[in-house]
Every structure is written in structure tokens, then in C-alpha cells.
Design goal:
Layout: H1 2-23, E1 35-39, E2 42-45, E3 56-58, E4 64-67, H2 71-81, E5 107-108, E6 113-117, E7 129-132, E8 139-146, E9 150-154, E10 165-173, E11 176-179, E12 184-189
Antiparallel strand pairs: 1-2, 3-4, 5-6, 6-12, 7-8, 7-12, 8-9, 9-10, 10-11
């Protein structure tokens, strides 16, 4: 009986410790809503824990930009402010931005953007919106740099201890471009 109680106490201690680590920002000096990065004049804000929400951000014209400081809010704000683009469907989780039924290079009508699969016939470009399938809601980011063999993304809400910038290998193989990430579904682009 003592052993069972001991095990239960340890489970509780580790459970509380895990909860504290994921809910509090004790290892960072940033405050929720503080600017941590910037791309083409569009700020990236710190969100703390990935599940934290600080209300909804809407534009002066009523356009839904998204839940404050979430990844979706940043990419939609970037497209709205920098590229002057409003998505026809302004709602949905990050992974909903990629329509798996579309072929490479087809128009994603819900987003008003051209969609490319990973791998694609089209090389990724700066300002493309990338979509990841991981987790419950997925993740979205903006391509901030492309070189011969790398793609850099800028992201909001990668987690309380992760960077706003991340780099992935870029490979050209069999006349297709592949961003090396098992969870990256593809990218979307504003094509006029």
C-alpha cells in the first residue's frame, strides 16, 4: 500500500511540474504580446504557451485576422498588411489552409491563393505561406528566405522556448522541389 501511495505522489509531482513548464514563461524574459521579430514591417508577437489566446484581432474594415498571437493570426496579418490580400474564408485552423484534394499548382479558392504540394514543380519563394500538419491544429508560417539548399521560415507561436525563425533543407530532385520536413504539407502563394 505504501508503494502505491509513493507512486501516486510521484505521478502527481511530475504532472504538476509538466503543467507548470508548459503554462508559465519562467525561462524567458518576453511578455505575451511583446514583439520578438519582424518581417517586411509586420511584427511577430510572443504568445507564451501555444494554447494561450488573447482575444480576436480584426482589421479596421472588419476582416477577421485571427486569434491574437496564434500562428494563423501572424500569416493572415502578414498577407493582409504586406501583400494587401484578404482570404475569402478567413476562419479555420492552421492545417485547414492546405486543401489535400487540390493538385500541385491549383487555386485554393478558400484562401484565394495558389497551392503547391511538398514536393512541387514550383520552387518555394519568399512570402509563401507554409502549412504543417503536426499537432491538433497544425501550424503555419511565412517563408522569409530561400537559398540553393535551405528555406528559412518566420513564425508566431512556435512555443514558449522556440525561435521565431527556423531553417529547413531544400532539395531539388526529379524536377521537383522538396522542403525536408515530414509534416510540411506544402505552400501557398499570392499570384496576381
Amino acid at each position: 500500500m505504501k508503494r502505491i501511495i509513493y507512486v501516486l505522489v510521484l505521478i502527481c509531482i511530475f504532472g504538476i511540474a509538466a503543467w507548470l513548464v508548459t503554462k508559465f514563461n519562467g525561462f524567458t524574459s518576453f511578455e505575451v504580446g511583446e514583439e520578438v521579430d519582424n518581417f517586411h514591417g509586420v511584427p511577430v508577437f510572443y504568445n507564451g504557451h501555444i494554447d494561450h489566446v488573447s482575444g480576436r484581432n480584426t482589421a479596421a474594415d472588419g476582416y477577421n485576422i485571427g486569434l491574437k498571437y496564434q500562428c494563423v493570426e501572424f500569416v493572415k496579418r502578414y498577407y493582409y498588411e504586406h501583400l494587401k490580400h484578404k482570404m475569402p474564408d478567413s476562419y479555420g485552423h492552421a492545417k485547414d489552409f492546405f486543401d489535400k484534394k487540390l493538385a500541385d499548382g491549383e487555386r485554393n479558392k478558400r484562401r484565394g491563393l495558389t497551392q503547391f504540394s511538398n514536393p512541387s514543380n514550383s520552387r518555394p519563394q519568399v512570402s509563401d505561406l507554409v502549412v504543417f500538419n503536426g499537432g491538433t491544429y497544425g501550424h503555419v508560417a511565412i517563408i522569409s528566405a530561400v537559398s540553393e539548399n535551405e528555406v528559412e521560415i518566420i513564425q508566431q507561436n512556435p512555443g514558449p522556448y522556440s525561435s521565431s525563425r527556423e531553417t529547413f533543407a531544400l532539395e531539388a530532385k526529379d524536377d521537383k522541389w522538396y522542403i525536408k520536413s515530414q509534416q510540411l504539407l506544402g505552400w501557398l502563394r499570392k499570384v496576381d
